[in-house]
Amino acid sequence: MDRFRWTGGRRTAVTAACTAALLAGLTGTARAADNLPPDQPLVKDLGSGGKPCATGDNIVYVPSSPRLSAVLYDPEEDNQPSEASLLSGEFEAWWTDSDGTAQRRSYSTITLLSGTRQYWTMPDDLPAGTPISWHVRANDGKAVSPWSDEGDGAVCSFVVDDTNPEKPTISSPEYPTPDQQFWVDGVGVYGHFTVDSPSDDVVSYVYDFLGGPAGTATARSLGAAVTLPYLPLASGPKSLTVRAIDRSGRSSATARYDFNVKSGRAPVARWKLDDPAGSRTAAAEAGTPARSGVGATFGGPAPTGTATSTTVALDGTGHGFLTPDAPATDLRRTFAVSAWARPAETDRTMTVASQDAEGRPGFSLGLRLQKSGPRWSFAIGGARVSGGAPETGEWAHLLGLYDAETGKAHLYVNGHEVGDAVAATPIEAAGAFQIGRARGTTGYRDRWHGDVGDVRVHDRVVVPGEVAEAAWRKPALLGHWSLTSATDGSSPEQSDGSPLRLHGGATIYRASYDSCIPEIDPDCAYVPPPLVGDGHLTLDGVSGYASADGPGPVVDTRDSFTLGVVVRLADSAPARPMTVLSQSGENTDVFKVRYHPPTHSWQLIMPERDEADAPEKVVSQITGADGGEGQGHRLAVVYDDATDTIKLYADGYTNADATATLPDGLHSTGALQIGRGKVGDGWGEYLHGDVDEVQAYAGAVRDSDISSLGWETNPCLC
Q1: CA angle at residue 67 from 65 to 71, to 5 degrees?
Q2: pLDDT tens for residues 522-558?
Q3: ω into residue 37 within 30 of 0, thus cis?
Q4: For residues 463 and 231, is the Cβ–Cβ distance under 8 A?
Q5: Phi, then psi, of 327 in degrees rounded to 5
Q6: Pairing of strands 408-413, 396-403
Q7: What span, in angstroms and rounded, lies between the C-alpha atoms of 718 and 716?
């Protein structure tokens, strides 16, 4: 037979053997008189081109001549202490050519330690499409092991496949190509894309939808087509690219499929519940009008910052309900139900919306009292998902979703998914849709006490972006002070609101348009521009500060709020903390934004109680001190009461260290302070530096809008 050996391997084997003998002589030990042969290689330790050893129906297919591998072992009892167990591997491979000629190749590896994986990279002239078998044995220089296929072992086999699979075809009944139908409905409606290659050895398909998702789909059987489910999350032109992968790992050319997705279709039922006071029927923008019980009162307050104008109040009695006396949708298919809800109490289970089944609701959306306290809840077919903490008198946007494609129920509160999605099996529920109550075995129960607005029912998935948009409450501008001028010690608010009054060592720095250019006139001194616009506030760090000159606090810290400011420190190495924004309660600052020199960071501090030594939530953003140079930093503070979170942004960005949970904002009674904060029983932490563009909003500004704060013009929070 032909034998291919690496001469370098021989030299290594001799060197290793000599080294082992020398070590044995130095330590006074001697090799055992009776040498044991190496262990038979195990099938589980063998590989063909990175694939496990296999034969017969499980034969391995490889895209080119493979590298064979085996882990070889010498018996532990064959060595004395300090001896090295050295082995080489002897590989043999054989096959029959198409003309019937038997072929055989062999290879011996270099000598390596016992337990090491040894390799043979096979020659490039192996025939394609021909089963090639191989085995291996170990050699310790004195004895050889049995071949790996002897006894309980097995032959390893592979086939070299040198042909790429054919490009797949793609089709979809829901989303045809633009030449068949240009725009197709739509966001939140699943499509199914069948992918099939003419090649009969394809095992998987690598796919990528424009904008995601992407992945690999495995065929159920060799050469079978696969179907890819796809949920459009946004409208517009879309595409799908796919490559077929055969059993050897070879890839086809890329197939592309284009399609256009329309916006998500409107609700199948919607009651805005903004009917005039005294109405006994709720008009339906879609679906059937709903009659109301006498315990339903129209014309109630609406959540601020939304398109909802008025709502309906339900008194929690048997008369406080609305119903169209008809089902709103088929619960066995995908559906979503949403509403604005404000509970008047949270110490009992109450229903915002449901649909009747036999003696029970087919689904229910509302508030459920649990041992851990009240939680928002969505239940369908015996499955329930809960999350979010309802608060008496506080608005929340709720959306329950059953996704028939995945078989799971989801709950969203204030635009964010809460709890874990649960598997659900809907029941027949062809009864009437209900607002404010749920069906029981002897009548209706769990009646809602509180306000409800804008109830919608969709027959599709309402995707996360749509949920967030429906739950968004547009912030309202409370004040914007550009600090470009001061009259009688006050700097005006842009819309003629309450000005900021300057105190102590606080002055307005104005731009000088008559300054000379040092490059032209060497005798003139450079005059730096203001931070933003034509001027900024300069504070001396001793007594200078500004405060809102109004009857009370600028922002209601019990509700969501946002503050933005541009600030530049005058010192490059501040020796003490300095506060840029604060607003106090009875005993301490309800919030404070300050620079903390030991950590080189801006901090947002909000106490959990209005007490001098109360525990505090502290979030931070690391920034270097300015030293009076540069454009400073654009800081923003956001408290989102709906999600119970506080965030500190620096130059448009936040992170995990700048975010924390705060269940309840505290009541603030003091004026907004610029440049100082509460210290003990008095004031301190006076800022030494410059401040500009102070902006205050009622409501939580979205992440995408934060970077637009800190300029002379107010952002469009559309």
Answers
A1: 155
A2: 777 767 889 999 999 999 999 999 999 888 899 999 9
A3: no
A4: yes
A5: -70, 150
A6: antiparallel
A7: 5
